[in-house]
Amino acid sequence: MDLITRRYNTIENISGPIVFASGLKSAIVGEMCSVTLRGGELRSGQILELSGDMAVIQVLEGTDGIDVVSASIEPSGELASAALSEEILGRTFNGMGTPIDDLPEIIPEKYADINGLPINPAARDRPNQFIQTGISAVDGLNTLVRGQKLPIFSGAGLPANELAMQVVRQAKVATGEEFCVVFGAMGITSREAFFFRESLESAGSMERTVAYINLASDPIIEKLFTPRIALTAAEYLAFEKGYQVMVVLTDMTSYCDALRVIGSARDEIPGRRSYPGYMYTDLASIYERAGRIKGLPGSVTIMPIITMPEDDITHPIPDLTGYITEGQIVLGRGVHRKSVYPPIDVLPSLSRLMNNGIGADNTRKGHKELSDQLYASYAKGCDVRRMVAIVGEEGLSELDSKLMRFAESFESEFIGQGDVERSIKETLDLGLKLLQILPKSELTRLHN
Amino acid sequence: MSFEEGATRIMGVISAVSGPTVKAAGVRGVKMNTTAFVGNIGLLGEVIKLSGDEATLQVYEDTSGLSLGEEVICHGTPLTVMLGPGLISNIFDGIQRPLEKMMVGDDPFIARGLTILPLDQNRVWEFTPVKAVGDKLAPGDVVGTINESQCIEHRVMVPPGKGGIIKDITSGGVTGSDRVVVFTDESSMGLYQRWPVRTPRPVKKRLPPTTPFITGQRVFDTVLPVAEGGCAIVPGGFGTGKTMVEQAIAKFSRTDIVIYVGCGERGNEITDVLSEFPKLKDPETGISLSERTIIVVNTSNMPVAAREASIFTGITIAEYYRDMGYRVALMADSLSRWAEALREISSRLEEMPGEEGFPPYLGTMIGSFYERAGKVDSLGAPERTGAVTVIAAISPPGGDFSEPVTQASLRFAGALWALDPDLAYRRHYPAVSWEVSYSLYYRTLTEWYEKEVAHDMVSLRNWLMAILQRESEVKEISQIIGVDALQEPDRLVLETAQVAREAFLRQSVFVKNDAFATFEKQYLMLKAIHAFMINAEAALEGGKYIEEIVECELKGELMRMQYEPSEGFTVKGKKLIADIERFFTV
């Protein structure tokens, strides 16, 4: 820290949430600074870019009321950091890490740069420990493992939040350890905030939860900080304190929209649907913080929620997310309308790390073959259902009718379990039972 | 990075910082595409634009924390990789920093500003000279050998541009800092050499691609082959199994060396490679796969500029082993992430964007990468033939192949292995679409197939393609009139095509006996399916009912034949064909 505070009255332009100021001596890229308004109001800003004499600063609380004459900027000399200690468990903070639960500030054990550093790929441990979520469509078909990043792709009006909370409530690992939950909310409504609080409290998991909440009405730039603070806390709990951490990030769509706002305010050349061209890299710097590290007991598992605009899975947000995450759980409007809960559309859903976490050591021998068979037969059943629309049920062969019956039961019984918990054994047994609808010759994926 | 003799150092200061690019002022005379240390902590950068005495550099590490006025030291040397024994089994980042050695004090995170030499200078290698004092050496000549791994004999070669008459040559234990050969003009060469990543290594002659690159995957070997020294691209939306294809080929292909470039992809996937490869055995030699593998990895959250460099680092190492006379396979996963890095840097330079924001020179740059694949006669003596085969994954946004990276790649690649989400949804892996994909190598490989596999291999393959085409036509009709209303021969087409798809084209890398299929197994499987079809056709004409054929036990056996081991399949396959003939003639 400098002994003399440097204060500059040199704002030249203001554009959206960004101010351009000149003459900031020895400014650092990423440095935090405070902006003082005419009436003495304080806001925080961050230096994004330096070019010649000019610094580009994003103002977290927005630029309303800032003028080029009297507002002043004071660089702090420090990068954005999060205050950390085990005391954060059970607490609720705003999107910048300030407590909003009427309790005092925590006494930090350390401060950590919220951007973190990339995990050395050679130091990563293989994620291969099964997490039982109690949900058949996940455990049986798209198994989640510790250290994975598995998003929920949802659409407006689909119960992604309910599903995420059910996973948080029921998630167990074989060793019996409980997860602690880091909850990062970007741009959620106050109604959703109530829902999350209520679910966590009713599950009795509040004392092992840290929440960082940015509401829809909070400043937009804050949304860019929230997931990073949440993940810094998660890394601290997992890799320094040995916890198994489940991070729920909702809603990544608001995060990306904030990214777009900044991009356009900086006159950047826009990419697809005017999201910035570096959105892949930016999202990766969030999602890639999931993982396990050799020799350390803890793990960071990330479950981001993405609301797909117009249910379009090729929209840049779900598209880029899917390229980074290790699979996706897709919610489908079709199954939702049939009152199937959880309304998981299993065909486009996938868990890439599934094969590491199943089999004799984790779940049961033959799990993979069973899952492949369920997928193959359900896909065929769906084909038949489309055909029925044209040729009518009378036009179906015996096999086709059986396939269709299988698809129906699979949706209503296997996927549509309701708000109950199923053990992996129950899930797999049910899968096998449903396959008995089909003749043996159809079961080409099962070896015996 | 080392300083080469004669390169002049130029000092300047940082005048602007924007994402991965930095401008340096006061560096008049600095050369394009040379490297520099940026800032007080010395981040590595490369000059990519010059205007007057100001240079724009792409920085290979995260730039946050840099401040204006910090120093920039330009070296005048291009970005190079270090080549020599010790590359095998190693894991590097995009600018060839050894990742395992970077875990200083057990820190699992990558700190900034670390400079560690890619190869261990102190490791002692047992060097066996093949040349003697007085011999005259030209560039590319092999001077001696080192057992680098259980299966790789490292041939120490005279670097391009060097040579002379040997005054002294060592033998026995040598390290990276020793002189291996001293020439009569007092110049010398060591174990290691450096080569600029963006310049192809010189060769004597390029050869036509006439032998197939054997993957053991039926859909590639039989239907859509890539030649040794060729180039195949694997585009597919997320979840269609690009990485699965890349990893299956890295594991099972018949090749001497595999270079796996994880370019902007997932860290957790690399752990699969790292933990599985030491345990898996090369199908040919029975030696652990890690003894033939080099990994270059720059995950998506590592700096973008280093991601851009990673594929060039990978291919330069590939060329080095090719020059020794090895068959090298380069797996690039994924080229789209490389192109995005290029786009990000281009937009920071405020260049006029081309299609979808990619720079207009995207095609040229992509071509400069693909064209480094090839089969060649290496420089120097003794005569050596080596090949670099490139298998590049592409991640088109929204799974739409009309985007610039896929389109630019199609101009250069000889085989397209297009992945189809619909197949992936059905868990049909590898999810290669036989309708969209193609291989331009088939024609040049025909002779090889007819000579090495079987005289009717090519015609069987063409028959298979015709059946699959016929199936898609019949399916369209059946969707309107229903399966029961189809003509019996048409129903037979559906049945046969189903067997072909599920038993032949689908292949599981997780089932031991199915993971790798020899050409003999592939041929006999195909022959059995063919026998089923023609015998059933004859039987139908002879008055047999289609139901009897559909439900026969033999069809079940055809469906399961993929799980029979390749060894001994000759007997099993021939018996199956005989059984089929008997069943239908009785």
Would you mind describing this structure in some detail?
The complex is a heterodimer of chains A (448) and B (586). Chain A is an alpha/beta fold. Chain A has helices spanning 136-139, 160-170, 190-202, 222-240, 252-265, 279-287, 316-324, 333-337, 354-357, 367-391, 398-415, 424-435; strands at residues 11-15, 18-22, 31-36, 42-51, 54-59, 72-79, 81-84, 92-94, 110-113, 124-125, 130-132, 144-145, 152-154, 172-173, 179-188, 209-215, 244-250, 291-293, 299-307, 327-330, 350-351. Chain A starts with 10 loop residues before the first strand and ends in a 13-residue tail after the last helix. Chain A has three domains: 11-79, Elongation Factor Tu (Ef-tu), domain 3, CATH 2.40.30; 82-357, 3-Layer(aba) Sandwich (Rossmann fold), CATH 3.40.50.12240; 367-442, no CATH class. Chain B is of the alpha+beta class. Chain B has three domains: 10-78, Beta Barrel (Elongation Factor Tu (Ef-tu), domain 3), CATH 2.40.30; 205-441, 3-Layer(aba) Sandwich (Rossmann fold); 454-585, Orthogonal Bundle (Bovine Mitochondrial F1-ATPase, ATP Synthase Beta Chain, Chain D, domain3), CATH 1.10.1140. In chain B, helix 6 crosses helix 7. The termini of chain B are far apart. Chain B is 33% helix and 22% strand. In chain B, strand 20 (257-263), helix 3 and strand 21 form a beta-alpha-beta unit. Classes of the chains: A alpha/beta (448), B alpha+beta (586). Chains A and B meet through strand 4, strand 10, helix 6, helix 7 and helix 10 of A and strand 1, helix 3, helix 5, helix 8 and helix 10 of B.
